[in-house]
Amino acid sequence: MFKVYEWLEEYFAILVFLVICIVMILQVFFRLFLGIAFSWSIELSQYLNVWITFVAIGYVRKLNSHIKIEMFYDWVAKKIPVSFERGLFVLKKVLNIVYMLVVIILGLQLSIRSVNFRSSAMQISQFWLYICVPIGAAGYLFREIHDIYHVAIKKDQEVTV
Amino acid sequence: MIGFMTILLFVFLALGLPVAVAVGIPSLLYVFFDPTFVNFVGLQRMVAGVNTYSLLAIPFFILAANLMNTGGVTTRIFDSCRIGMGRIKGGLAYVNILASVIFAGMSGAAIADAGGLGAIEIKAMRESKYDDRMTIGVTAASSLIGPIIPPSMPMVVYGVVASASIGRLFAAGVIPGALMAISMGVLVFSLRNRWNLPSEGKTTFKAKVVAFWKAIPSLFTVVIILGGIFSGWFTPTEAAAIACLYALILGLVYKDMTWESFIQTVRESLVTTVQVMIIVAAAALFSNILAREQVPQKVMLLVQRANMPGWMVILLINILLLIVGLFMETVASINLLVPVLLPIVTAIGMDPIQFGLVIILNLVIGTLTPPFGTVLFVLSGVAKVSVETVARSVLIFFIPLLVVLFMVNAFPGLSLWLPNLIFGIQ
User: Fold this and answer.
1) What is the pTM of this model?
2) End-to-end CA separation in angstroms for chain B
């Protein structure tokens, strides 16, 4: 089950990325050589671009590659007692988790409220645009909790934030 | 409230939270405390921040550069640049700069240059027994040409935030980028005896012809991207997509690309794209709040009351940008600072296109400095030395970089002449 999730987490985003490339290349090809301009291609690629932006945050969290500035924290962490450092670590985790929970709730509200709005070119419900936000935040949250589980309970992994 | 938000932002950044979260928490707090702001609209602003046609170019430019690195395009460019440089003292250092200029014509980010081309450059220069200071220093500094010479990822972001033409911004980067290369070349020239830079043996005429012949299809990438954009055939976004296709075809023709390496390249590009775009999304809400609170107008009033001469304001802005560049990520800084600073500089009479170049140059210089220097981190991985060593090696290259920065500030013609020539005077 977990393996299936990991596979999906990684390859769904890669698939979407490739689809955007193909759509965009086809669009240029059709316009330049056949003189046909699609109405839906740009909107589709833009929406998919939003999708990868949000959906893949969990995967990037798994790789621990979100851009962050660690030098101050590392410098401070060396100078303070261990208990204080643990406190800071817990604080960071709590901030992360609460933020993601809020994003999930607001994202769901936003998606549900926009069910009846349709996009200008493809005429699909805006629900499908906004639902990627709570999905992505849930993926991040999962990785965050998974991380805490391994650091604090199984103790088989180094601390990452 | 805005002051509290900003303080909170810096505290979270210092704590080492991901930049997107550190920007997002204060923004959402503001949304909750402002009764006129419907809560979930905050998220809608984030989505709207990335849901633009221009930003669609970012994944493609990242992918194109990575495909060129794995597909063998980069190697061939480097080999072709070596033609005729063998016997010159410090020849490989010039080759390094020249290859970066050509690579910059295809890639839009300094890290693609440092990570891909940089690895080849460092290997070649170490084999020829160059001083490691020169090897790492020139590789790091020349990779900054990447985001200045078009295409350029920070310019796309700036164009979106400042509502400036991305085509014009691209054209504006050409001359300053060339200046960077020339000034670095001058520095290498003046150091050639002091650091005792080696030269290499002669190559045969035939080898030269072969190297050039092999590189022609790779060099043609520049023609496709820049020619396509400046002639108006493609939009920058489309040019980026075509560049991906072309790099992929070259990789297949050169037989340097396998299915595994292709998927690996896509995966790396995906991660880089998400890193950038999620920050753009979070910062979009933050700058929306800055606009609601009329922060730009208030700051401008403050500047006007101070009654400073124009050059002084520009100087202060440059210093501010350099300091911000030390601590902050480029894309986030553009998103947060441009809405505030742009009205000030336009009131003084600086063109938004010129200011785009000024802000990007300032911020990319910051990627060479600790505590937060993406190019430093990438190069320390590639060259297998500590971040401190890389930082010390590039120190001397700040001289040419700062000279170019001064010139771009002082002479508007450097950045405005070419766009006016291509697209007409605005």
Assistant:
1) 0.89
2) 39
